[in-house]
Amino acid sequence: MNYNIALLRGDGIGPEIVDSAVEVLKKIGEKYNHTFEFKAYLAGGCAIDATGEPLPQETIDGCKASDSVLLGAVGGPKWDTLPGHLRPERALLGMRSALGLFTNLRPAKLYPALKDACPLKAETVAKGFDFVMIRELTGGIYFGERGRRQGPGGEEAFDTECYSVAEVERIARVAFETALKRGKKVISIDKANVLESSRLWREVVHRVAMEYPEVECTDMLVDNAAMQLVKNPAQFDVVVTSNMFGDILSDESSQITGSIGMLASASLGEGTVGMYEPIHGSAPDIAGKGIANPIATILSAAMMLRYSFNLEQEAVCIERAVDAVLNKGLRTADIAGNSDVKSLSTKEMTEAILKEI
Ligand code: IPM
Ligand code: MG
User: DSSP class of residue 344?
Assistant: First the structure.
């Protein structure tokens, strides 16, 4: 088959790690007889520099016309002082809403080979953990009404958390469908003891749960969830939550794996076009040094094969290759820990993975 992939290399280490993932996809193409065609578009700081805006219309049109989108990372200190609507991060929010990517899948698992990098006590993670956080991505406070106004005490600012029944229903369905293919356990996270939007969220999740009697569904308040993630991460299988809670908790869950340079993500909508990107940022401090860990982006490409192209075998092939290099003790600097093995460069790590494919 022939697949068109839009590349948003972005800023900082973005271009280096996207190029690694492209190498891996090309190798998969050779091995399994697929043609991947790549077309690069500007997004983030590089787009601001070239066109004055973080997400040019040409990029949106190009991504919509492609079969899927692979993104590196956007942002950097150079653009930090721009006003909100011109910041590089707008490119991410704009892409999510332009492509209707309401589902964000963020898997977090403890790689046995990297367990020493986990900041939690060994006994806390003795059983390991492997869960997927499903974050609603196009609603809630990120997209609600906002503004500034004069209040009784002077200037005020407000952002609004609003969820419709339909929005909660569709993300809840994704969670239950995902759970069916995994451990059949959904934990829905909200703040229903305080927020009306959370009370609606909870009602709707329970209603959808009735359609999935084989899946166990429980609620957890977000403050408790923040605690449970570091107390007993093995209890989680599928977590579903709102845009903002998911933003916060997915950083926490990536941290407990000890290897943010390893974590992939997928943003999906109704159709098959998705946007795939590593969870980490553009790491301006190491940009251009050739030492960034390409694994998160390579695993994001694997998620693309699975979710956008339905190429399960090919996705597993990449994931196995990554496992193999880790089990051999190969490390980039970010996951080397205190060991005295020599860290690989981005290129060397990419080569090592290509060899296993
Ligand atoms: C993320 C990021 C983004 C978000 C920012 C950069 C807009 O933190 O993808 O988690 O808040 O969604
Ligand atoms: Mg975030």
Answer: B
What was the pLDDT predicted at 336?
85
Ligand 1: residue whose CA is nearest its atom 5: 89
The set of protein residues with a Cβ atom below 6 angstroms from ligand 1 is: 89, 92-93, 247
Residues 142, 312: Cα–Cα separation, whole Å: 33
Active site residue 191: yes
The residues facing 238 across adjacent strands are: 132, 186
Residue 340 annotated in active site: no
Residues 102 and 170 sit within 8 Å (Cβ to Cβ): yes
Q: Which distant-in-sequence residues (6+ apart) come within 8 Å of 253 by Cβ?
A: 106, 108, 131, 133, 229, 233
User: pTM of whole model > 0.85?
Assistant: yes
Note whether 304 and 276 are within 8 A (CB).
yes
Average pLDDT over residues 214-231: 98
Pocket test for ligand 1, best of 247, 250, 275 (most atoms within 8 A of CB): 247
Rounded Cα distance between 245 and 255, Å, is 16
Instruction: Answer for the pair 96, 138: CB distance below 8 angstroms, yes or no.
Output: yes
pLDDT, the chain, mean: 96
Structure confidence by residue, pLDDT tens digits, 300-309: 999 999 999 9
CA of 247 to the centre of ligand 2 (A): 4
